[in-house]
Known about the structure:
Blueprint: H1 3-13, H2 20-25, E1 28-34, H3 53-59, E2 63-65, E3 68-69, H4 75-84, H5 88-91, E4 107-108, H6 123-129, E5 133-138, E6 157-159, H7 197-211, E7 217-222, H8 234-243, H9 253-275, E8 282-288, H10 316-319, E9 323-326, E10 335-337, E11 341-342, H11 346-354, H12 360-364, H13 372-376, E12 386-391, E13 402-407, E14 410-415, E15 420-425, H14 441-458, E16 464-465
Parallel strand pairs: 1-7, 1-8, 2-10, 3-11, 5-6, 5-7
Antiparallel strand pairs: 2-9, 4-16, 8-9, 12-13, 13-14, 14-15
Helix pairs in contact: 1-6, 3-9, 7-9, 8-9
Amino acid sequence: MNKINQFSLSLASVLALPSFAQAAASPNVVLILIDDMGWKDLGAYGSDYHQTPQIDSFARDAVLFTNGYAACTVSSPTRASIMTGKYPAKLHLTDWIEGWKFPEAKLKVPDWTMFLPLEETTMAEVFKNAGYTTAHIGKWHLGEQEKNWPENHGFDINIGGWAKGSPNLNKNTNIPNGYFSPYGNPRLKDGPEGEYLTERLAEEACNFIDNHQSAPFFLNLWFYNVHQPLMAKQDKVDRYQAMLDTTKLQKNPVYAAMVEHVDDAVGKVIEKLKQMGVYDNTIIVFTSDNGGLIGKSARKVTNNAPLRKGKGQMYEGGVRVPFIIKNLHQQASGTTNHTPVMSIDLFPTLMDLAGVKVDKVVKNGFDGISLKPLLADKKKQLKRSSIFWHYPHYHSEGATPYSAVRHGDWKLIHIIETNTYELYNLKEDIGEKNDQASLYPKVVKQLARELEKWKKDMKAQMPLVKE
């Protein structure tokens, strides 16, 4: 037995073991994570171009959060926050792996962690210890080395999860096959020529459900779509090209086709759950790891309006995302909820909904809180006043090091490079067009103090002035 498996067993032994009856009655959990999907990319969130009937239908069975947030403006930190229930700042995993290099930048970025440490207890480990069969299907992007891949973080099955954050180059030709087989992925066997990656991952998910319907399962279904390279089946692209006109908010037919591929895949998985008679006993989460990528002027990808900017930026377009949860027999199903919620909340929420006990040490380490009260009654309020972001890095889409706090309707952004603040009232100004910092200095002072205390509590790494 290798050291990694020895560690996993020793970790599991410290967590409370369930009775057989508890395990038999446990609900299934499916956590669907989309890569780079923007807040406005679904019909349920107001897209007038992308066709997403399957996800829209699912949202009517669930609670749709209008103020759902990723923990970071890029993917790897948000993925780590989902798996641990912790802020990226606490994990010191604050940029995508391996990050951008900006030698001309004014500040030196910190020596941050480029993997999810084995010492961290993950959602999969707790589910596994509670008697669940655990599977990860799709993108991982939480470590370059094999020891940090899903099978060493609590997953019994890993299909497609490895070091890379986007579909790989063909190792023989160096041509980006991308979303079409052969994939060049060591955790996914190549399919027939022309097979599309998203369809394949949905098929793998359905096969998993087929083979594990008799006992509770946790399925981590993390699609590579809609991350670049932009690639989709030509028939879908042609249809969106024909639908394109100047009135549409989004205008990229290939990207729209990629969104539809996601919709098809989600619909296929939900239909399989229904066919197997386990849909009503399955908790389902649908969200994204960061806001939609806008892209450069000549290569526009999506449009997050009315939100400002997009992936890799400090504004709402970079962190506000689709966020939908279906619980079991929930009174609030088919409703929208405007409470600010975040990816750090998924671990404690899913444990609470599934009735899985969490070791006290692990539970005390959560930065997120359970959203169960909101899923039972849309009038309920969370006992939390603020949520936070910390990104001490530079990004090719324009972000410079920043920290931010949302408190009620107020959002304060600290631009670290210039040591300046911007203040927005998101209820009145969702597009963050009117900086209110000079009009409300007391609010700036109060939130800045709260933000600094949070960073101190997190032991957040800071960029430094170059020598």
